[in-house]
Amino acid sequence: MEPKTCSNCGEPLEAGAAFCGNCGQPIATPAPVVETPPAALPGGLAVAAASGDIPSYAVPVVGHQMSELKAAMALVLGIVGIVGGLFIPLLGIGLGVTSLVLATLSHHAVRRRLSLAGIIVALLAIVAGLASWAYVISRDPRFNHGLAKPASSGQAGSSAVAAQNVITPCYTANFAAKLNIQNNSGSCNMNAYNGATLSQSSDAYKVYGTTSAITASGFSNLAKQAIENDVHQNLPTFVVSKEGTGQFAGSPAYFVTASNGAGVSVVEAAVLHVTTNGDNFFVFVHAINGNTVDLNELQAGWRWE
Predict the structure, then answer these.
(1) Which of 20, 42, 218, 231 is found 20 to 30 A from 205 (Cα to Cα)?
(2) pTM of the predicted model, to two decimals?
(3) What angle do CA 19, 24, 25 make, to 5 degrees?
(4) Across the strands, what pairs with 182?
């Protein structure tokens, strides 16, 4: 007698078998279909499960496998993000966010410990990226500045010129009164102050500019981290009184205002200026002897080039 074959997959059937050993298809005549079969099981398996005849090994577990795969991927990406974030800050942040999304989606998997580990590692990758970015900014000589540093440290090799305006490749700035202005030819960095030197002035501005790889969507969080870190490191006696997002001359900005309790107030802002030739990242500082400080006067006479 020719051996029977499965009507579903065509594989030979063992004598007396109730299910196909290859695909799990019931061999015996299935029980009448119930009105509401289990939605999670396909085809004939739903009917067999409703009648109580289907063995546990025949039930597919694709959903659990996918969740566990996502959790494993989240853990791997998070670990790579921690290591990569120490060298490339945006890589650590990007992989950390991706890892966090995957770990969150897989949180209902059977192995929840794997998902929880993925979430923890993802957060560590994001923190590593942010910390690395803040460290790079704080150590960059273009951004590592303090109010009490001599004027020559900000614009080495340049002398101050009394003027009401300054023209650079990045911008033109006009002041209401004459200030001593330091600006090297071809540079977008500038110091402007009303005293004999920057440290002896009661009203002073600093502007630093560089190219940027920061995206507009992630700018606010990164700028907040960098500016807060800069204030804490370079102005340790100052207390932050106000901070938040805004705009400077039409470009997105993050502002932090602080004072030292001895009559000196400082406002520092990070600004992302997008151009057709690339994006530029600027840091603005205005310090004054007084309780009120802002960048309104600088902004009023400012024009991007």
Answers:
(1) 218
(2) 0.50
(3) 70
(4) 191
**DSSP assignment of the chain, as one string?**
-PPPB-TTT--B--TT-SB-TTT--B-SPPPPPPSS--TTS-HHHHHHHHHT---GGGS--HHHHHHHHHHHHHHHHHHHHHHHHTT-HHHHHHHHHHHHHHHHHTTTSS-HHHHHHHHHHHHHHHHHHHHHHHHHHHHSTTT---TTS-HHHHSTT---EEEEEEE-SSEEEEEEEEEEEE--TT---EEEESSSSSTT-SEEEEEEEEEE---TTTHHHHHHHHHHHHHHHH-TT-EEEEEEEEEETTEEEEEEEEE-SSSEEEEEEEEEEEETTEEEEEEEEEEEESS---SHHHHHTEEE-
Query: Quick one: average pLDDT of 52-80?
Result: 66
pLDDT tens digits for 155-164? 545 688 999 9
